[in-house]
Design brief:
Blueprint lengths: L17 E7 L6 H11 L4 E7 L5 H7 L3 E5 L4 H11 L4 E6 L3 E2 L9 E6 L9 H14 L11 E3 L1 H7 L8 H11 L4 E6 L1 E2 L7 H17 L3 E3 L5 E3 L10 H13 L5 H8 L3 H17 L2 H17 L5 H13 L4 H11 L6 H19 L2 H20 L2 H7 L1 H8 L4
Parallel strand pairs: 1-2, 1-4, 2-3, 6-8
Antiparallel strand pairs: 4-7, 5-9, 6-7, 10-11
Helix pairs in contact: 4-6, 4-7, 8-10, 8-14, 9-10, 10-11, 10-14, 11-12, 11-14, 11-15, 12-13, 12-14
Length: 409
């Protein structure tokens, strides 16, 4: 999982150096006090505040209080903490919410230490907490009492096992799952802390609704993108239009090896890539009852998959082609904002399924010579993608590069 520099555990007998990470958004009233308390309690530790797109004075007040501040676009808690972790020196970490008060010095020990609040303050009806507890037990077998606590101490080994974190409010839940599955000791410790709890009002229920959605996505399939950010794979939603190809692509998302491209997959022989190379054209043959239809479906699915290397790129190509080919638009329109803002990824399930839809649309749109011309163009595009990155061609061509970057956060 580690994508950045390696984290050493320090010299034998010496405690690991500690860095404190705080994710904050619009916390100008609380952040200065939090930073001052942390610096007083842990004077040797660096405090890094990841400002997650605040529209107030959060960053300025954190900096004035002695913290190192990362000013980030709005991405969510998990991505903010992951960015701060990449900026932190080697050693152990203490993760702290921006508005928490109390002494976190009790969180000591190897592995993952999680603060369990001694006093319950506010909250809803426990649906998000119950869902997080159930998901952790389902995925790892661990029974968590405080599954959503953001107050956590990680040694260097745990840090390497769980970062980058799942995005948004699913970060802590997936962190616990990843730590347990990596064989790391997870201990919840009761600590006398206070925090600003959400209430049973509209704002509180909306917050917990987002939290619940993030939990479900965080506990599903994830992938690290080109930027080192860990994102949920949501392209399986294309199964609404094309379930068979989405299922084939999802198998590649879940069990793919390191092989890339036709040659590597054919050389390795037994890979999910070989499964796709055989199964998607075969599915196209069954659907269209023609060799040309099988080729259009297989080549379109692979071409769109080759383009899915930057946020929104494959979806833009799909939407541009879907209109004249009369392919379904709904799922692509729904996913585009999340893909462009790096909140989710299509994965092979999405790119293969959407590409297959373009192939099936081409079968209905073209006949005779036109169909074979389309096959030739797609075959050439696939061959070019095998020899060089299609993305690199886009990035070297000014007009294509501007269109490619359009809409990204």
């Amino acid at each position: 999982m580690r994508t950045g520099h390696s984290r050493g555990s320090g010299l034998a007998g010496r405690p690991e150096p500690l860095t404190i990470l705080v994710a904050a958004r619009d916390e100008e009233d609380a952040i200065a006090g939090t930073v001052r308390l942390l610096r007083a309690r842990f004077p040797e530790a660096e405090v890094i505040v990841a400002d997650d797109g605040s529209r107030d004075a959060t960053a300025a007040r954190a900096e004035a209080s002695g913290a190192t501040v990362l000013r980030l676009p709005r991405r969510g808690k998990g991505q903010a903490l992951s960015a701060a972790e990449r900026a932190a020196p080697p050693g152990s970490l203490l993760l702290v919410d921006a508005e928490v008060r109390g002494d976190l010095g009790a969180l000591v020990g190897r592995g993952l230490r999680i603060a369990r609040f001694a006093r319950r303050e506010g909250g809803g009806f426990g649906l998000a907490r119950g869902a997080a507890r159930a998901l952790i037990e389902l995925r790892s077998g661990f029974r968590a009492e405080e599954p959503l606590s953001g107050q956590r101490r990680l040694d260097a080994r745990t840090r390497a096992a769980v970062f980058p974190l799942a995005p948004g409010f699913g970060a802590e839940t997936r962190m616990t799952i990843d730590a347990v599955r990596a064989g790391i000791e997870v201990v919840e410790m009761e600590v006398d802390l206070s925090h600003r709890a959400t209430g049973r009002d509209l704002r509180g229920f909306l917050h917990r609704g987002r939290q619940l959605a993030h939990l479900l996505l965080a506990c599903g399939p994830l992938r690290v993108n080109y930027r080192g950010t860990r994102l949920p794979l949501v392209g399986w939603l294309a199964a609404v239009h094309e379930p068979a190809v989405a299922a084939i692509g999802l198998a590649d998302d879940l069990w793919a090896g390191p092989e890339r491209g036709f040659r590597e997959h054919l050389g390795a022989r037994h890979t999910t890539g070989v499964l796709k190379l055989a199964a998607i054209p075969l599915y196209g043959l069954l659907r269209t009852r023609s060799v040309s239809g099988a080729l259009l479906v297989g080549l379109s699915a692979n071409a769109l998959n080759q383009l899915d290397t930057r946020p929104g790129r494959a979806l833009k190509v799909y939407l541009a082609a879907a209109v004249p080919l009369r392919a379904p638009l709904g799922v692509a329109v729904l996913l585009a904002p999340y893909d462009l803002r790096e909140m989710a990824m299509l994965g092979d399930a999405g790119s293969n399924a959407l590409g297959a839809l373009l192939g099936l649309g081409s079968v209905n749109r073209f006949t005779g010579r036109g169909r074979w011309l389309a096959i030739g163009a797609l075959a050439g595009l696939n061959a070019l993608g095998e020899r060089t990155s299609l993305g690199s061609i886009i990035e070297r061509t000014p007009l294509l590069r501007r269109l490619d970057e359009l809409g990204r956060a």
